Amino acid sequence: MPSALPDGEPMPEDGALPASALAGAASRPLGFYLHVPYCATRCGYCDFNTYTATELRGSGGVLASRDNYADTLIDEVRLARKVLGDDPRPVRTVFVGGGTPTLLAAGDLVRMLAAVRDEFGLADDAEITTEANPESVDEAYLAELREGGFNRVSFGMQSAKQHVLKVLDRTHTPGRPEACVAEARAAGFDHVNLDLIYGTPGETDDDWRATLDAAIGAGPDHVSAYALIVEEGTQLARRIRRGEVPMTDDDVHADRYLIADEVLGRAGFSWYEVSNWATSEAGRCLHNELYWRGADWWGAGPGAHSHAGGVRWWNVKHPGAYAAALAGGRSPGAGREVLSDEDRRVERILLELRLVDGCPLTLLKEAGLAAARKARDEGLLEAAPYAAGRAVLTLRGRLLADAVVRGLVD
After folding, report:
1. If you ran DSSP here, which 8-state letter would residue 312 be given?
2. What's the pTM?
């Protein structure tokens, strides 16, 4: 969750939504994102809305404490129930992210999940995920999560190489994420993801291949692989600016992506979103698919974003301000925007084009249709789906996805 918040109109103190946000809600899936904004240390590349104990000291007081955070977030879940009213939908997905959710006690995460279940109910086949730092869990912790209802876990692995982890300021030991997969399986988790990053300064093709091999060998059913983005204001950006480490260029990123797709494909993983591969449809991250397909979700926690029926809103960033709002009986919402039909059309193209089944050509206007024909002729869109009325990226198109989508929305 990026740390910067957008502009927008003020959020009502009671969090009430326009009637348009709730119209037709029964036909749309509902998910919950629960943000835990705490980290033991700040990674050099991170621009997310997260805080270390040092960063919070003196700025949030007791309200920003990890010790009572679960109770604060549960207050927002109860607020969501009031705002959404008699919405009959059981929750389809719950995703606990951060930050490092597993810095909280496992019992706290279970209580947060229980609040969603008690207020809304969970679908029989609900997907319940938490992110986890490999060094902040053990077999007992994972077993408690599984017993408490979690059925999917995502470990931040990033790299199998110590020198790459050092550049990223990651503190876990190489080999620990792979061990965590085994511990999660032993605890009863059927679905396990490993998050990888490629293009770190100093990483070689061989380093990246070794990381992929280690990840696959651990036995997850899902792998996410993201190109490193150097965000302004981060420690890594400052190091690159000072010449301490080199900037990785786009050609290297493209080469690493091709390696990932080849190695993962050979191991039985199939891409279903540009940066995500799974061994089966059951292994896909359903929560992220809610985002990509424009469903409804409530984001609880500091800086969390939500969406319902074309209305998007976001919470205040700081854990102290977030807790103070809820303690005072107010919504922690900082602002919101009502998306126009054109906004929603463009967003559908931006998000759905990244998926394996692409987006319908009926979303495109005349200029976009012309760009789609050109992209097909240049080998960036698959010919057969195009003939059937859908824009689906080829492998080369995935490398140039941002450029392709710009043409389609223009």
Report:
1. E
2. 0.93
